[in-house]
Structures are given as C-alpha cells and as structure tokens.
Amino acid sequence: MQEIQPASALIIGDEILTGTRVDAHFPWLAQQLPQRGMRLLRVQYVTDAAKELRAVLENSFASGVTTFCFGGIGGTPDDRTRQCAAQALGLELARHPEAVAMLERRFGAEAYPTRIRMTEFPVGSGVIPNPINQIPGFHIRNHYFYPGFPQMAQPMLEWTLEALLNRPLRAAAMNSRVLWIAGLGESALVAPMEAWAARFPQLEFTSLPMWGAQCIELGVRGVEAEAMAQAWEVMRAHLTALGIDYADEPPAGANAG
C-alpha cells in the first residue's frame, strides 16, 4: 500500500488576490488528491509581482514538497511564473524542443514571434501535455506548473498524477469518520484525543466546533482500514465511559466555525 504523500499548491495571480476571479483550484485539489493517496499540507495564494513570486518559489523549492502551481505561464508581460521559477533555481530559460514542436503543430508559422515564448522553461524542465489547446505546462524539481484556467489545469494535473507521480485513483485513499457531541466544551476532549493519538499514531483525530449550536464535530481519518475501525470503536467506548453523549448526525443549525 502506498503511503500518503504530502503536497502543496501555489495559486498565482493578482486576479485571485483582488477578488476579480474566484479560485477553483483548491476545492478541486481538496476533493481529488485524497483519492490519489495525497494530502495537502498548505495552499498559498501568490501575487504576480516578480520579487514576491520569486521569493515564494525559492522557499517552495527548498521545502522539497511536491507542489502544484497554477497560473502565470502564458506569454503576456504579466505572466511571470516561468521566469520567476528559473530565477528561484538559479537557472536560465530556454525553449524546450518538445514544447516548440507542440506549438508549431498547433499554430504553424503563427507560433512566431510571440506564442513561442510560452515554450521557454527553466533549463532541465520536463513537459506536461495540454489536451485542451496543446500549449504545455512544465515540471522541474518536484514542482508542476499549469495554466490558470481550471478547464486546462485539471486534465493536465490528472496526467501528472498518473504518468509522473504514479498516483492512480484510490491509491491509499484517505478515509474519515465523524460523530457529533452537543453541550460540551473542547477542553473536555483534550485528554481523550491525546490518548487516542498515542494509541493510533498512524491516524489523525480532529475536533471542529460548530457555529450556531454548542456542538463539536469529532473525527478520525487515515488510510489503514483496520486501524480506522479499531479507533472508531475505541473512541465511542471511551466517550461512553466518560458519560459523554454523542450522535451520528449533526444537530439542526450547526455550521463549522
């Protein structure tokens, strides 16, 4: 069984930060990656400004975490992701022969002189094919770069997961179970949660207060089905022994807070 692989995401573009566009990448990643045996550690929204973007990429490359990057790889002056990625790594940009061939097949002579700039990647990059318009993304040093359009980025990322990261669907998928406790403060759950975490270190135990009702969503998640089943029974038995009532459904009016 594959272990859960950590991942992060950089969502690049002033249009997101100003509210001109609404990000669709994070919700999609949060839904898709657990089905591939991956878990998001962080998601960062980043400006197109070169100095700040370069600094974020430098830190990201240094982290060593698999990172999916969206936006800023086009050919207009405000698209700076390719350049900043190269600078963050101390590399030059160069036209990638495979990417050049893709654009020439798609556009012919009209690939020059401007569209061809979109084939300039940091030296040593690999190509990520784009099935929508044949203008590829690229990958280097465990970072994967896609267009800002979700309709293009999503199939490209699916290809990355299958072809480059060997993460087929349902590979070590993350599972979760939750129950609800009303009329109790979170402090009463500290000691039980610590005990469960010590007994099942491969699992995660979570407490989420709900707004609109004095209620806590108590959960456990992990990959190992047997450990999950054992932990679920231990949790319920422990709560019962402590005289803490719980329910399998949330109370009316409860919202995450």
Task: Describe this protein's structure.
The longest helix is centred in the C-terminal third of the chain and has 17 residues, at 225-241. Strands 2-1-3-8-7-6 form a 6-stranded mixed beta sheet, with helices on both faces. A 4-stranded antiparallel beta sheet has the order 9-11-10-12. Strands 4-5 form a two-stranded antiparallel sheet. It has helices spanning 14-17, 25-32, 50-63, 81-89, 97-107, 150-164, 190-199, 225-241, and strands at 5-12, 38-46, 66-70, 93-95, 120-122, 126-128, 137-140, 143-146, 175-182, 204-211, 215-222, 255-256. 34% of the residues lie in helices and 25% in strands. Helix 3 (50-63) packs across helix 4 (81-89). The mean pLDDT is 93.
